[in-house]
Design goal:
alpha/beta, 14 strands, 13 helices, PyrdxlP-dep_Trfase, Aspartate Aminotransferase, domain 2, single chain
Length: 421
């Protein structure tokens, strides 16, 4: 009765079962996997947000396939003011209800059934479900950890086939927190150009650059190779930049056809508003052809509602307060983590450059899932095992850095107690 594309394993895994059993038993759970920013104690401008949703203009129906011009202009201004993309035409922006929907548009635009997309490993597990629903095959390429996370270009060359249609890049990656750096951009564009591929770039965490590990080599990441910082090129990220900015947006990439995805879920910490977009850049002829087809796709669904589109300028403005709060939270939790790590030797934090997550390298005495289950049952602490993010081996835990500070510190203490028994 049902399609093969939805033939997923829907039974709960052992880790999820352990968490639900602990909660059902009334245990006080310290959740170090929190991803919902609306529930971590941030201070929102509620009055301005709610007032923006009450615009009288929302009573008029004005269907625009790419989204209301006023909303797209606000998005373009965000890229100009925050990321130096000065010539972004709002007509190259398509609004969507989520980055997931944006992915579906782009995957359908680029791929026939059975075509392939290259995706980073480790990375966010959502890609697998999106690809299944669009009948696309994902082919992983590894990010390697050597004095910091880096793209493995020889593996890209090995992975590409005649059916490859694009390369997915997460900038910064979730969960590794690694940006694509200036010295990687040239080879990445060359690879795509030589093989006739598009770039699909997820930038939802772009604004959360930490700049904590860029050059100090602090002992909190261990000794030897782990303690040495990544050497950075002085080459500008894009033409027109005066200095290296690892978190410059790909929305200014003109060398190859590029689709840049982002939205208010992370930029303004408003996931419930369901506002996202796709920015198309690259050679003029390819951009024009892509936009003509994307507009038809968007016009077929017309998924965004009018009240939230009229509210976009105000909702984007909220980022200025929210991002300060989140960055302060992330940096405080990172400092707390490093302070506690300094007093033990069992595990190490890997270098993180941006985003909301940290990766711990831990002793491999059991599988990551077994360790995570043990932490739930013995310490009432929830962390994500590395295999959730497709790490190639055991020995990794992923932690959320937006957890409330007191809860985060207590949770880390219990994790390290378990690991240092």
């Amino acid at each position: 009765m049902f399609s093969d594309r939805t033939n997923w394993k829907l039974a709960q895994n052992r880790f999820t079962q352990a968490v639900e059993q602990a909660r059902a038993a009334g245990a006080k759970i310290l959740d170090l996997t929190v991803s919902n920013p609306t529930r971590v104690g941030l201070s929102y401008d509620s009055a301005a947000t709610l007032a923006a949703l009450a615009s009288p203009a929302a009573l008029d129906y004005e269907p625009q396939a790419k989204g209301l011009r006023e909303a797209r202009e606000a998005v373009a201004e965000y890229y100009r003011s925050d990321h130096g993309v000065r010539d972004l035409d709002p007509e190259r922006i398509v609004l969507t209800t989520s980055t997931s929907e944006g992915y579906s548009y782009v995957f359908r635009l680029l791929s026939n059934a059975g075509d392939e997309l290259l995706v980073p490993k480790p990375s966010y597990p959502l890609f697998e479900f999106l690809a299944d629903l669009q009948d696309v095959k994902l082919v992983p390429y590894p990010l390697i950890y050597d004095h910091g996370w880096q793209m493995d270009f020889p593996s890209l060359e090995t992975a590409v086939t005649a059916r490859t249609r694009g390369v997915v890049v997460v900038h910064p990656n979730n969960p590794t927190g690694s940006y694509v750096h200036a010295e990687e951009l040239g080879p990445l564009n060359t690879f795509c150009r030589e093989h006739g591929l598009a770039l699909v770039v997820d930038e939802v965490f772009l604004d959360y650059g930490l700049d904590t590990d860029a050059g100090d080599g602090n002992s909190h990441v261990g000794t030897g190779a782990l303690a040495r910082p990544v050497e950075r090129s002085s080459t500008a990220f894009f033409a027109g930049s005066s200095e290296l900015k690892p978190h410059t947006s790909f929305a200014g990439n003109r060398d190859v056809l590029t689709f840049t995805l982002s939205g208010l879920s992370k930029i303004s910490a408003l996931p419930q508003m369901k506002v996202a977009w796709v920015v198309t850049s690259g050679p003029e002829d390819e951009v024009a052809a892509a936009m003509a087809r994307l507009e038809v796709i968007a016009d077929t669904y017309l998924s965004m509602n009018a009240p939230v589109q009229w509210a976009v300028p105000v909702l984007l403005e909220q980022r200025k307060s929210i991002q300060r709060q989140l960055l302060a939270r992330v940096r405080a939790n990172l400092a707390e983590l490093d302070q506690q790590l300094a007093g033990q030797k069992a595990c190490q934090r890997l270098i993180v450059e941006g985003g909301w997550y940290a990766v711990l390298r831990v002793p491999v005495t059991r599988s990551d899932e077994e360790l995570a289950i043990e932490l739930v049952r013995e310490r009432s602490v929830v962390v994500h095992p590395g295999h959730f993010y497709d790490f190639s081996s055991d020995g990794y835990l992923v932690l959320s850095l937006i957890t409330a500070e007191g809860e985060f510190g207590e949770g880390i203490r219990k994790v390290l107690e378990e690991l240092n028994v």
